[in-house]
Design a protein that fits this description.
single chain; about 250 residues; alpha+beta; four-stranded antiparallel sheet; 4 strands; about 40% helix
Length: about 250
């Protein structure tokens, strides 16, 4: 795929075929992802790539503990609950997903089932757990670098026909993940990524989350007097909107 097609076409995939993903293809995706920049080339991340019975045990343990009310034990800081515009965007994408899946606002059972899908890594055939070296845990650069490699990973996967969704639900119960993935004690669990072949019949996979316009997010300094013609010319090479893709 062209770079623009990957960036504009990629979307979070929450429904997967059961078909296995070849290890060689995953290694190819990881090789591409690791070209992401890291602070002074520290490359603080590691990948635990899980499938089969081990992943089934993580799904079961994660779900059972959450349903039983065991407090979540994610190993990275989550901060306070979202508020203001951040909360509005969180609610916005939830509405998009629930509408696509036909889940009514008052349908508690369907909403609970949707939440449990996340704890099961969306039933994807592969889960990639991203960890980082514990001796770098006090560096904000480390979390930044893990985010960069995660973004590169999902884009590389999409370029190879694979779908993915970065999530935290799959690592809510870190003792379960550590046990069945064999995660070393010198590693901190950062994020999980569900990975597999997209199920085109799963309605939520067609959802394209909205993005703010550049004019709302960027501050340009020192560009006084420029006409913006270059930006307009560059924009002419892009699709009219992300909606022109199948996402």
């Amino acid at each position: 795929m062209d770079f623009d097609d990957v960036i504009l076409g990629r979307r979070s995939i929450r429904g997967y075929k059961s078909d296995p993903v070849p290890r060689a293809l995953i290694e190819e995706v990881l090789t591409l992802a690791m070209r992401a920049p890291s602070s002074m080339n520290t490359q603080p991340y590691h990948f635990y790539v899980i499938t089969g019975a081990a992943l089934d045990r993580i799904r079961a343990g994660n779900t059972e503990r959450m349903v039983a009310g065991v407090p979540q034990s994610r190993e990275f800081r989550t901060g306070t609950a979202f508020a203001g515009s951040h909360r509005e965007r969180q609610i916005g994408v939830a509405k998009q997903l629930f509408t696509a899946m036909g889940i009514a606002r008052d349908d508690a059972a369907a909403r609970q089932d949707w939440v449990l899908r996340g704890f099961r890594q969306f039933d994807a055939p592969v889960c990639v757990i991203i960890t980082y070296d514990r001796d770098l845990a006090d560096s904000d650069d480390t979390a930044f670098d893990c985010g960069a490699v995660a973004t590169a990973l999902v884009n590389a996967a999409w370029s190879r026909g694979l779908g993915a969704v970065i999530n935290s639900q799959g690592i809510m119960q870190s003792p379960v993940v550590r046990e069945h993935a064999g995660i070393a004690a010198d590693q901190v669990i950062m994020k999980s990524i569900a990975l597999g072949w997209p199920d085109d019949g799963f309605a939520a996979n067609a959802v394209v989350s909205e993005r703010r316009p550049v004019g709302e997010t960027a501050v340009f300094v020192g560009f006084d007097g420029q006409s913006g013609e270059r930006s307009a010319a560059a924009a002419s090479h892009l699709p009219t909107s992300p909606g022109t893709s199948s996402s």
